[in-house]
Automatic annotation (TrEMBL):
The modification N6-(pyridoxal phosphate)lysine is found at K181. GO terms for biological process: polysaccharide biosynthetic process. It comes from Spirosoma terrae. The active site is at K181. One of its GO terms (molecular function) is transaminase activity. Gene3D superfamilies: Type I PLP-dependent aspartate aminotransferase-like (Major domain). InterPro entries: DegT/StrS_aminotransferase, PyrdxlP-dep_Trfase, PyrdxlP-dep_Trfase_major. Belongs to the DegT/DnrJ/EryC1 family. The keyword ATP-binding does not apply. This is DegT/DnrJ/EryC1/StrS family aminotransferase. Keywords: Aminotransferase, Pyridoxal phosphate, Transferase.
Length: 364
């Protein structure tokens, strides 16, 4: 079976060497030495000022909203993983959906300003598939209207924009280190900011709001463990090689797929990509379903990602119409992509896709 992704694991001996130290120290969690070392190495790797390693990529979105005192309307994208919208709803905010750009599938800055009201407090945008939003335009709108900018940068580890990590932009950026990501810690995530006071607030929010017996604020349990940090320390030095391997798979797809009836989202100028996903867009949902069935018959499992458009979720009330996102969500499919996917499998997957899209739908 070929899944849409496969988690990379380091040499077991390399990981168990870290475990021996954990056993010797008996320090399993609560801001342990491996966690601090991983945070330090990630800050250096990414070139960011403040980074907190946390339990996952959703709770850091919630922490960002709480730390920035966002409680009202937030303009956001309908084309993202559900965690983006869920975090807003969970924190009692009102998501206001701006439609996406049909070329790169990121939120369209030209659709944002008309949605701003006296209750708008922030823009929460997703760098879709690890490809940067139109950062300058979004920041200009935020500055004009005194709004905060939160980036769901879950897919962006190892990617840069204009020579800087994509995680370095906005008031706050968050990332996911789930096992399926380019860089992972099995489960995990991080929150990044350049603001000293905000970083201090986030430090306490991550750990119940206290240090030892001194209580400073409200807080939640977003701490991560030494075991997860150990995985991160194993993988971080390999990120460059992992991205290079993903790029090779990406290029094989570009060679073997027939683009007469499929398209791909465009890459934002200035982005050095991390090859996180390989999305393709079909002429119709019927063609997508036909390809999915053909792949599934060969035990190949792609993913409808992102689907559905988040403004159509039944638990989101009075959502804005976003026709571009709604249309793309019906027609986009992510093909299998991971570092050790063999060339022969990429060629086979592409052949199945090409054959399936060549078949015309039966007339009604």
């Amino acid at each position: 079976m070929i899944n849409v992704t496969k988690s990379y694991l380091p040499d077991l001996e390399e990981y168990t060497n870290y475990l021996k130290g954990i056993w010797e120290r008996v320090h399993l969690t609560n801001d342990g030495p491996l966690l601090r070392e991983l945070e330090s190495q990630m800050k250096e790797f990414l070139g960011v000022k403040h980074l907190k390693f946390c339990t996952n990529g959703t709770i850091v979105l919630q922490m960002a909203l709480k730390a920035l005192d966002i409680t009202k309307e937030v303009i956001t994208t309908p084309f993202s993983y559900v965690a983006t919208t869920n975090a807003l709803l969970w924190e009692g905010c009102t998501p206001v959906f701006a439609d996406i750009n049909p070329d790169d599938f990121n939120v369209d800055p030209d659709k944002i300003e008309a949605l701003i009201t006296e209750n708008t407090q922030a823009i929460m945008a997703t760098h879709v598939y690890g490809n940067a939003c139109q950062i300058e335009k979004i920041q200009a709108i935020a500055d004009k209207h005194n709004l905060k900018v939160i980036y769901d940068a879950a897919h962006t580890f190892g990617a840069s924009y204009n020579g800087q990590s994509i995680l370095s932009y906005g008031d706050v950026s968050t990332c996911s280190f789930h096992a399926t990501k380019v860089f992972h810690t099995v489960e995990g995530g991080c929150i990044v900011t350049n603001d000293d006071a905000l970083a201090e607030k986030l430090h306490f929010y991550r750990s119940f709001g206290h240090r030892n017996d001194d209580y400073y604020s409200i807080g939640i349990n977003a701490k991560n463990s030494e075991f997860h940090a150990a995985m991160g320390l194993c993988l971080l030095p390999k990120v460059g090689d992992l991205i290079a391997a993903r790029k090779q798979v990406f290029e094989w797809y570009a060679t073997y797929l027939n683009f007469d009836k499929i398209t791909r989202p465009s890459l934002t100028p200035g982005v050095d990509y991390n090859y996180a996903y390989y999305p393709i867009v079909f002429d119709s949902e019927a063609a997508l379903l036909r390809v999915m069935d053909a792949l599934k018959a060969q035990e190949i499992l792609p993913r409808r990602y992102f689907y559905p458009s988040l403004n159509t979720l039944h638990f989101v009330k009075d959502a804005q119409s976003c026709p571009i996102s709604e249309d793309i969500a019906l027609r986009v499919l992510c093909l299998p992509l991971y570092p050790d996917l063999p060339k022969s499998d990429v060629e086979r997957i592409a052949a199945i896709v090409n054959e399936a899209i060549a078949i015309e739908s039966e007339p009604v």
